[in-house]
Structure formats: C-alpha cells, structure tokens
Write a structure and sequence with these properties.
- With 142 residues, the chain is α+β, with helices and mostly antiparallel strands.
- The protein has helices at residues 13-24, 41-51, 64-68, 78-87; strands at residues 5-8, 30-33, 96-99, 102-105, 124-125, 131-133.
- The strands form 2 sheets. The chain has a 4-stranded mixed β-sheet.
- Strand 1 (5-8), helix 1 and strand 2 (30-33) form a beta-alpha-beta unit.
- Belongs to the ArsC family.
C-alpha cells in the first residue's frame, strides 16, 4: 500500500477535495488534523525543505491573525515564522500532502495529482461541481 499523509482541515473545501482525490485513487491516507496536532518544528522544516519553499510561502495570508501580527513585514525570519505556525497552526496554509512522489501544498486541490500519479478509480467532481476526472479516469480540468 502506498503511504500518503495529508495535513488536513476538514472545514476547508480545498482540503476536503484533495482528500477525496487521494481516496479516489484507492488510497486511504494518514490524516493529520494539524489544527489539533500541529507539526513539530522539525516536521515543518522537513516539509518546507521537501517542497523547496520558505516559511512565508506556506503561511495562510487570508487568516485574520496574519494581519493582526503584521506577518507580511519582512522583519520576520523563517525561524520566527515557523515558531508562530507552531503556536498558531491556523497560519499554516492547507492542505499539504506527502507522497512517495513528492510533497506539495495542494492549492488548488487538483495540484495533488502532481504528486499522486496513481490512476483515479472513478469520475470526480469538486464540491463546487467542477468535473476534474471523467469516466475514463482522464483529467479534464486542471
């Protein structure tokens, strides 16, 4: 069985769609509800390294706390931003998916297909009705 992990927020439509795409490939991933169980500092650093991103690039800019803490200011170092994401995991953009083929921040949800080259088992539409996978398993929208 393929080992896949999703850092998931069940209240987020993009995260739910991403999880559904993983399951549509026939895989039941390890689900990390990161708001309840924030990733450790070393896990965050590993995810960033695997995605070749810096801390700022995985911060949820639409979050009210982002503005309240003035996190757009360049004065914040990666170490400080990682520390803030540990204390306030709502600042972590989601979902992040880890597969044997790579690690990716999956926004939009179909970005998961870049690191999930397994065939889709059935047609798939996002929650908003957008068809992504047709009855032949072909990607029709990305």
């Amino acid at each position: 069985m393929t080992s896949i992990t999703i850092y998931h927020n069940p209240k987020c439509g993009t995260s739910r769609n991403t999880l559904a795409l993983i399951r549509n490939a026939g895989v039941e991933p390890t689900i990390v509800h990161y708001l309840d169980t924030p990733p450790s500092e070393s896990t965050l650093k590993g995810l960033l390294s695997n995605m070749n991103l810096n801390a700022r690039e995985i911060m949820r800019r639409k979050e009210k706390l982002y503005d309240e803490l003035n996190l757009a200011d360049d004065k914040w170092t990666d170490e400080e931003l990682i520390g803030l994401m540990r204390v306030h995991p709502i600042l972590i953009e989601r979902p992040i998916v880890v597969t044997p083929w790579g690690t990716k921040l999956c926004r939009p949800s179909e970005a998961v297909l870049d690191v999930l080259p397994l065939p889709q088992k059935a047609p798939f539409s996002k929650e908003d009705g957008t068809l992504l996978i047709n009855e032949h398993g072909d990607i029709v929208s990305k």
